[in-house]
Amino acid sequence: MILVRGTVVTMNPDREVIGDGAVAVTDTTIAAVGRYGELRATHPDAAVSGRAGDLVLPGYVNGHQHLTGDRLIQSTIPDDLAPGESIFTWAVPVHAVHTGDDDELSATLTLAESLRNGITSTFEAGTVAHPERVVAAAERLGARLTVGTWGWDVDDGPFAGPVDEVIDRQRRALDLSTGDLVTSWVSLVGHDLMSDELVVAAGDLARERNVGLTFHLSPTTGDVESYLGRTGSRPVVHLASLGVLGPEVAIAHGVHLDDDELAVLASTGAAVVSCPWAYLRLGQGLSREFRHFDIWRAGGRLALGCDAENAGDMVDGLRTAALFAGLAKDTRIDPTAFGAHDALELLTIRGAQALGVADRVGSIEVGKQADLVVHDRSRVEWVPNSPDPVLQLVWGSDGRSVRDVFVAGRAVVEDGIVTTVDIDDLVDEAVAAGRSLRARSGIPDAVRWPIR
Ligand SMILES: [Zn+2]
Q1: Are 366 and 33 in contact (CB under 8 A)?
Q2: In what order do the strands lie in the sheet with 213-217?
Q3: Which of 10, 113, 192, 338 has its CA 20 to 30 A from that of 141?
Q4: How far is the CA of 317 from the centre of ligand 1 (A)?
Q5: Which of 328, 354, 380 is the last residue of a domain?
Q6: What SS3 class is residue 194?
């Protein structure tokens, strides 16, 4: 047993915060939560991790993350491209030449950054060619992962195919689930790239196997218009009419939703994952209406995501939470509308609820998985400590103050360093792989201010 010491922000139903508290961990699970002195007295032989001044939280939940494709060309796609160009001129050609080695290296780097910033649960976005290699990366790192694979049958991009072939590939990906740290879900690329036949078959498969279903939907206004032209209905309304939407569905984005679509989401229980940095980097119109706030206010199912390294770029849940909180206040011109505590809920327990994993993660409660993040509050950005640690966590800090991270009771980050993989060893490999990918994919060489 180990005692993880600090001020414990439990995120339990009463939102208890325990000053000089501790979390007792036995193997993979949380055995007790309470005051440090009391737990120490009842477990005198337990090892102790951390200090009284630390802040202990449940591991953060990232509901939408591309683990391949962007990482090896991170922050390379210009931020002043026309809508769609970043995907079809840059991301798709890179994905098309991604090898298994590229996939594993990309996922290793992204998951290492995630853990380093306190993200213990990652939901992959469904754009992986070699999911078994991404699973290998997650297992090596000790990260908790839900992974998908390519699924689309409209247009002829990489890994697109007829419905039967796509569903077969999805079935094989589902078999990669270890039922432990790594699970998988059915994943389609997006509402404009899937036929009705495919999405219905995918929904049937998800229900048959009792797993989630995810796809991208309406990040831009143009997505809605093309869908209206094809089906006569807005995307969420049409998908509901096909019987696809239910509580097992996690829709990535849903930036452009009308009132009818919000009502359908509420009645079907389908969740939305908001990746605000992506919409701001790509100029997609989130702040114009910010319907994600309406979903939250209505008690709907909502999670946060960090998306991709060319769409928000940094994989840091706290940075995402702070941005979401700021957008909520500012778009409503109402500082009382939403706050740091609400944002932390989305990053932990409410995100876990939206993604159907709250029985195992998302809060510090006895019997749950011991996924814990420890922030060092002696760092300069934390000094002096605020009386409200959550306010300071969301507004005044970010992943840099994460010192230790546990996933299922295993220390995967210690003193700010990932323990399970030596990242320094991968630097040369990442540089070479990135150079090779840029050459093989034929993406443009675009540097705004050329370096002499
Ligand atoms: Zn995405």
Answers
A1: yes
A2: 186-190, 213-217, 249-253, 271-274, 302-304
A3: 10
A4: 15
A5: 354
A6: coil
- Non-local (6+) Cβ contacts of 161 within 8 A are 153, 169
Q: Is 330 exposed, middle or buried (0-12, 13-18, 19+ CB in 10 A)?
A: middle
CATH number at residue 9: 2.30.40.10
Total structural domains within the chain:
2
Same domain, 309 and 368: no
Tokens standing for 114? Answer: 């995630």
Alpha-carbon gap, residue 181 to 397, rounded angstroms: 28
Q: How far is the CA of 126 from the centre of ligand 1 (A)?
A: 8
Q: How remote is the CA of residue 125 from the centroid of ligand 1, in Å?
A: 6
Expressed in angstroms and rounded, the spacing between residue 333 Cα and the centre of ligand 1 is 29
Range of the domain at 43: 2-58+362-418
Q: How far is the CA of 307 from the centre of ligand 1 (A)?
A: 5
d(CA 40, CA 173): 44
Cα(238) to centroid(ligand 1), Å: 21
**C-alpha 7 – ligand 1 centre gap (Å):** 35
Digit-coded pLDDT (tens) for 74-131 = 999 999 998 888 888 998 899 999 999 999 999 999 999 999 999 999 999 999 999 9
127-184, pLDDT tens digit by residue? 999 999 999 999 999 999 999 999 999 887 788 999 999 999 999 999 999 988 999 9
Report the residue count for the chain.
452
Residue 276 C-alpha to ligand 1 middle, in angstroms?
A: 11
The Cα 155–Cα 392 span in angstroms is 47
Same domain, 125 and 181: yes
State the pTM of this model: 0.98
Ligand 1 centroid – CA 316 distance (Å): 15
The CATH number assigned to the domain holding 294 equals: 3.20.20.140
Q: How distant is the alpha carbon of residue 365 from its chain centre?
A: 22
